[in-house]
Write a structure and sequence with these properties.
Elements lengths: L1 H22 L79 E9 L4 E8 L5 E3 L4 E5 L12 E2 L11 E3 L4 E8 L10 E9 L7 E9 L7 E3 L3 E2 L1
Parallel strand pairs: 5-10
Antiparallel strand pairs: 1-2, 2-7, 3-6, 4-8, 7-10, 7-11, 8-9
């Protein structure tokens, strides 16, 4: 009986030891490592550039491009060119003014009874020219004589034609109205003349026509002239 009791006690002790080993497993703890100080950590920290998409870093003073865009290229400024006039091109292609030597004076139409004549300038040259304005008209004795009575007065009223350029091609003509008031000779000591002297506009040389007419002496006015018009 004693031997049996000892066997039972030994078996129970073995079971207890086996159970204790299962409930308390051994846990291995990993060893910790202390990192060595980095050599770069001793250097001063430099300020970082702002991050720019695409990897481009803006220069100081430049503009930062928009996200997704690129750095703008500098705008090319076109070179300035100075205009030079072509020496072969005339500055003014308008025909020149007519000079007396180019013109011939024609009596045109009209008559002494009504006191109104439409006299004409005819371009007798081979060059085109321009007439504009009022002729100078007076009655004289001879082509180079001084005016007898008052020269013709310019009619610049609203009903009269206004001065405008009239171009005369070779052989072309323009007209002007010349008016006298013959009834006035009954109220003055009239003088007889034999020439009508006419200066084209802007000229100092005159043309003339035979003109046997009476005129009142100065200061009485009895002659009127109107601006040149196309024929």
């Amino acid at each position: 009986m004693r031997i049996k009791s000892l066997l039972v006690a030994g078996f129970a002790a073995g079971v207890a030891i086996t159970a204790s080993g299962c409930d308390s497993p051994t846990t291995s703890t990993p060893a910790t490592r202390t990192p060595l100080p980095s050599a770069q950590s001793e250097q001063p920290t430099q300020p970082a550039h702002p991050s720019v998409p695409g990897g481009n870093v803006p220069e100081p003073g430049g503009s930062v491009p928009e996200p997704g865009g690129s750095v703008p290229e500098p705008t090319a400024v076109p070179a300035t060119r100075t205009a030079v006039a072509d020496p072969t091109t005339p500055a003014d292609t308008a025909p020149p003014k007519c000079v007396t030597a180019q013109l011939r004076l024609d009596k045109g139409v009209g008559g002494q009874i009504g006191g109104t004549w439409f006299l004409r300038f005819i371009n007798s040259s081979s060059r085109t020219c321009v007439l504009q304005g009022f002729p100078g008209v007076s009655q004289t004795n001879g082509p180079t004589g001084d005016p007898v009575g008052e020269p013709a007065t310019r009619d610049q009223g609203p009903q009269a034609p206004q001065p405008a350029p009239v171009t005369l091609a070779p052989g072309g003509a323009a007209q002007f109205e010349f008016i006298s008031y013959p009834k006035q000779i009954n109220e003055c000591a009239a003088l007889r003349t034999n020439t009508l002297r006419v200066y084209p506009p802007d000229n100092t040389e005159s043309l003339w026509l035979p003109w046997d007419n009476l005129i009142c002496p100065s200061p009485q006015h009895m002659l009127v002239v109107r601006a040149i018009t196309p024929l």
